[in-house]
Amino acid sequence: MGIVGLDIGTNYTKITADGKNVLLYPSVVAFGEEKDWSLKGEKGGVYVGDEALSLIKASEGVEVYRPIQDGRVIHSSFIELAKYGLRRLSVEPEVVATGLPVKSSKKEREELKSQLEKELKGKVLVFPEPVGTLASMGVDTGVCIDIGFGTTDILVLSEMEYLRGDTMLSGVDKLYESLEVLIRDKAGITVLPEEITKMLLNENYSIGRIRSGKKVAIRREEVIADYERLMKSWVDRIVNKTKSLLEGLSTTLLDNFVVTGGGVLLPGVFETLKEGFSDIGEIKKPDDPIASNAVGYYILAKTFLGLKEETTEEVKFEEVKEDKKDKRKRT
Ligand SMILES: Nc1ncnc2c1ncn2[C@@H]1O[C@H](COP(=O)(O)OP(=O)(O)OP(=O)(O)O)[C@@H](O)[C@H]1O
Ligand SMILES: [Mg+2]
Predict the structure, then answer these.
(1) How far is the CA of 149 from the centre of ligand 1 (A)?
(2) From atom 21 of ligand 1, which residue's Cα is the shortest distance away?
(3) 295 alpha carbon – ligand 2 mean position (Å)
(4) pLDDT tens-digit profile of 167-213?
(5) How many CA atoms are closer than 13 Å to the CA of 22, on its beta-carbon side?
(6) Which of the four pLDDT bands, split at 50, 70 and 90, describes residue 285?
(7) Which residues sit with their C-beta closer than 6 Å to ligand 1?
């Protein structure tokens, strides 16, 4: 049976057909003229992932979409992201398990489900994002904070039941916005989020542009002190929000206190979170915080199918995490 775990994130799409190997590519889709040369055999003027990204830098006159923004599907080209991954993995899935932010509306979930089912011709399951990571770690009771590019999702799970959750519109993008402004002021160049990531993760990295026939560059060491300062106040906001969400809950829930998403891999973020939460619990992260949701969705899909034969009660998991006050209260 073809099962796929699919995590279409604001910045990266992660997809797995075996629960182990995860393919990752930028969530970017470009529609353009067919290029003079197509060295990788892409046809039809639809470019996805790294190729679409290189088009942003190289060409004028192409339509470029980042279909997920602030945790919402804003453009139908998200389907291209899913199809591209399935093509690359050579899989025709019967079941695709995926996720949306905790505070997505029921309508958004239903729309995503029906559009994917129509286009991919398989059954689609939609989970609240951080559940993927908890499932990938074999945890059914605990707290998970998923710091993604577009949103930070906080979820409290008790025996695989949704207890509490929230979606903050403060993902890595908010941190990067301040850095982008800083870089524009310092060097007069506009940079892509993917370039900022490379710069933060690699010593001696610089981002360069040719401007008016000259080379203009910004080096990591020129921004790192400002980054530290901005990062600390950004993490503080996440810590405070989480603490207020956890108010009054049993401390046993914090036996499994997990932080995930690419945000926790940025310099100093895990350490700052650890310090911020030191008086309530010990945080841990999965082996691969970027891939863990996709892996967990795959595992959940398998469980779902297994349960289906025995009982119909648990099969309702998808509806279980429905928050009664399901107004999209975003912070
Ligand atoms: N090695 C890495 N490669 C890519 N991104 C990284 C890496 N390490 C840290 N990051 C950060 O992780 C971010 C992407 O995280 P993630 O994939 O969890 O977000 P997302 O799922 O696309 O967003 P969201 O969940 O909000 O929709 C990047 O923007 C970058 O800041
Ligand atoms: Mg994500």
Answers:
(1) 5
(2) 9
(3) 12
(4) 999 999 999 999 999 999 999 999 999 999 999 999 989 999 988 89
(5) 25
(6) very high
(7) 9-12, 68, 148-151, 171-172, 193, 197, 201, 261-263, 265-266, 290
